[in-house]
Design goal:
The chain is an alpha+beta fold and 662 residues long. The chain has four domains: 1-302, 2-Layer Sandwich (Beta-Lactamase); 304-407, Beta-Lactamase; 425-505, Signal transduction histidine kinase, dimerisation/phosphotransfer (DHp) domain (Helix Hairpins); 508-660, Heat Shock Protein 90, CATH 3.30.565. It is built from 15 helices and 22 strands. The longest helix is centred in the N-terminal third of the chain and has 70 residues, at 2-71. The protein is rod-shaped and about 235 Å long. It binds adenosine-5'-diphosphate (ADP).
Length: 662
């Protein structure tokens, strides 16, 4: 917009200058054409004047020759006056012919038959000085001599301008007399100048000071008069022949040349106008185009989809802001870059290069898009969906590819999360099923366990009866049956607590001495330890306070952890030790804790396994259920404690959990 407002006045000035220049050029051309025509006219009239003078000179010379013929004719046959009369009839410019003696006295004279004798009014003597002058010249030059022209008034009030020609008559080298011919100047103009010269021009004799002596032809008056003057120098007298021509009212188109120039100028102006119109139309189209471009740019900039155009060689020719933001590169870092593109992960360059080569060979990618992985400037990889379309130019040729790129990393993350939660749900569902099964089992097992307990009690009663017969045997059997009864009762409690746990009933919390907890589970641990040759070490100070817990469930946790520890050492042939430790844990003012640890020197836990350890159904064992640790954590967390593990030194694992003190 700014550039347009700046260039507008400048363009106007340029246009104004152009129009001015064209007008100036046209004016100059017209002026030059007019001037050329004036010059032409002037030179034509100069030429005509020169022609007229030549005509007059020729006529005068011819007349002189006629007079000479008159002088030298044989007078014995035809008298002078007869020949002179014939001559006067032929030469209308002559008014009178005289034959004079050497002293200029008139011997004979004869007047033109075409007008009344011109000297009758004032007499011939009035012109004597001019005759004397002419004959003086003639005598000196022994040839024709002309006298000064004089005005001869006539009886009718008008007058004539006359001029005398004197030709000496030489006999035996001596001047015997003179022949004098009187010219009427106006008749000279009429008879000697070619009629074509006087048709539209005025021809006249003037004195050197411009006084007009005689004239012929009528010059029509116009605004422009052309004048040409030519000197007519005769022996004894000089005159000026003046020719007047005219040009009519000023013409707009004086001649064809000017008309042509004007026509061309008009054509030029029309072309200029058309050019201006074309320019204006072009400007309007330019404006529309600029607006459309700005609109498109705003659209592209507001897009969240990344746009990227590449030429047929795979060089990037265009990227929009969304694409730059996506990959973290600036547009100038991307444009002009070929293969590999800066946002390709280095490990994918080969694969992407092949894909690109395929595309350049003409294999269009599918319309529904291609999934790919790009790399941001900071090295972060992210998933994208690319939709490619061929770029076609105005003449229908393909100049490259335009790609719309969508960042689908967030979508992938959400999908991954939903997949994980789906798996968790499934696991929970399976866990719930297991819970249901456990509940059913506990219900079913209660009956046989009660029966075992009753039978044990019955057997004890019977044993008391036979105590007298063999007291030692009775004692041994009684102890064994008592144990059977206790274990059946314990099994019943375990089943009940599992049932309660599954049914989410409130567990019975009681203050239990840690040693008592260990004592309860120890017979079962030792049973398994013996089987696989493990030495069991218990580290439990006697003065420890009690813990507040669901006794049966915590015993189950201790049993599970010990069993896992022993299984981890099962294949180990070296020194196998299972250590059970109880100690006071770090406490604060509001809660005090006791820590139970189960340590082994077994295989230890691999990194990959460590993360999934507490996931239900995760197991590395063929016969394992993968529920033990998950259950243990649930139990400990229900008590507000924490179950964790860390590697044992030099080998093996330590599982430890905390319980609140009572
Ligand atoms: P299960 O014992 O049925 O496999 P658990 O949840 O008790 O299920 O244990 C899950 C997995 O944890 C075991 O399969 C085992 O790989 C690993 N594990 C548990 N305790 C230990 C230990 N003390 N040493 C090494 N691995 C162990």
């Amino acid at each position: 917009m700014i550039s347009r407002t700046v260039t507008q006045p400048r363009r106007r000035v340029l246009w104004g200058l152009l129009v001015l220049l064209v007008l100036a050029m046209l004016g100059t051309l017209v002026w030059l054409a007019g001037r050329y025509e004036v010059t032409q006219e002037q030179s034509r009239i100069e030429h005509d004047a020169a022609d007229a003078v030549t005509d007059i000179r020729t006529g005068l010379t011819r007349n002189v020759q006629s007079l000479q013929a008159l002088q030298y004719a044989d007078r014995s046959k035809v008298p002078w006056s007869q020949d002179a009369q014939v001559l006067l009839r032929e030469r209308r410019e002559w008014l009178r012919l005289e034959l004079r003696d050497a002293d200029l006295r008139v011997i004979k004279s004869i007047d033109t038959p075409f007008r009344a004798p011109v000297f009758s009014h004032f007499g011939r003597m009035a012109n004597q000085p001019e005759v004397v002058q002419a004959c003086g010249v003639a005598r000196r030059q022994s040839g024709p001599g002309y006298g000064a022209s004089t005005y001869l008034p006539q009886a009718d009030g008008l007058g004539l301008e006359i001029m005398d020609l004197c030709l000496p008559v030489i006999v035996d080298g001596e001047i015997a007399g003179y022949t004098v011919a009187t010219y009427a100047l106006s008749e000279i103009l009429i008879n000697m100048v070619g009629p074509q010269l006087t048709r539209s021009q005025e021809v006249s004799f003037t004195e050197s000071d411009g006084t007009r002596l005689a004239m012929h032809g009528q010059a029509r008056r116009g605004t422009r008069v052309f004048v040409a003057k030519q000197l007519l120098d005769l022996p004894g007298h000089n005159m000026v022949l003046r020719m007047d021509s005219w040009r009519g009212a000023p013409e707009l188109f004086p001649n064809v040349l000017t008309a042509l120039v004007m026509a061309m100028a008009l054509a030029l102006v029309i072309v200029l106008v058309m050019l201006a119109r074309d320019m204006r139309r072009r400007q309007r189209v330019e404006l529309d185009l600029a607006e459309a471009l700005a609109f498109r740019k705003a659209m592209e900039d507001s897009l969240v989809t990344g746009l990227r155009a590449r030429d047929n060689q795979g060089r990037i020719t265009y990227v929009n802001p969304a694409f730059c933001e996506m990959v973290g590169f600036e547009a100038k870092e991307l444009i002009g870059k070929g293969i590999p593109a800066p946002y390709w992960p280095p490990e994918m360059v080969d694969e992407y290069g092949q894909r690109q080569a395929l595309r350049l060979a003409g294999n269009a990618p599918p319309r529904e898009g291609v999934e790919s992985v790009f790399m941001r400037k900071n090295g972060e990889h992210f998933a994208v969906m690319i939709f490619e379309a061929p770029l076609i130019n105005v003449v229908g040729e393909q100049t490259g590819w335009m790609g719309a790129v969508l960042d689908i990393s967030e979508q992938r993350r959400v999908e991954e999360m939903s997949r994980a939660s789906q798996e968790r749900l499934q696991a929970t569902a399976r866990l719930a099923t297991v819970g249901e099964m456990a509940s059913l089992l506990s219900h079913e097992l209660n009956q046989p366990l009660a029966a075992i307990s009753s039978y044990a009690t019955g057997s004890m009663n019977l044993l008391q009866d036979m105590a007298g017969q063999d007291p030692d045997l009775a004692e041994t059997l009684s102890s064994a049956i008592q144990r059977i009864g206790q274990q059946a009762e314990r099994a019943g409690k375990v089943i009940k607590s599992v049932h309660d746990f599954v049914r989410r009933r409130d567990q019975a919390r009681e203050a239990v001495n840690p040693q008592a907890l260990l004592d309860d589970v120890m017979p079962l641990i030792i049973l398994q330890a013996r089987k696989i040759g493990v030495r069991v070490v218990v580290q439990c100070p006697s003065d420890l306070p009690s813990v507040l817990c669901d006794r049966t469930m915590v015993e189950q946790v201790l049993l599970n952890l010990s069993r896992n520890a022993m299984q981890a050492m099962a294949d180990d042939t070296s020194h196998k030790v299972l250590t059970l430790t109880v100690r006071l844990a770090a406490s604060n003012a509001t809660s005090r804790w006791m820590e139970f640890s189960v340590s082994d020197v077994g295989t230890g836990i691999a990194d990959g396994v460590s993360e999934k350890l507490f996931t239900p159904f995760f197991t590395t064992k063929e016969e394992g259920m993968g529920l033990g640790l998950s259950l243990c954590r649930t139990v400990v967390e229900q008590h507000g404690g924490f179950l964790g593990h860390h590697p044992n030194t030099p080998r093996g694992t330590v599982f430890s959990f905390t319980l609140p003190q009572s």
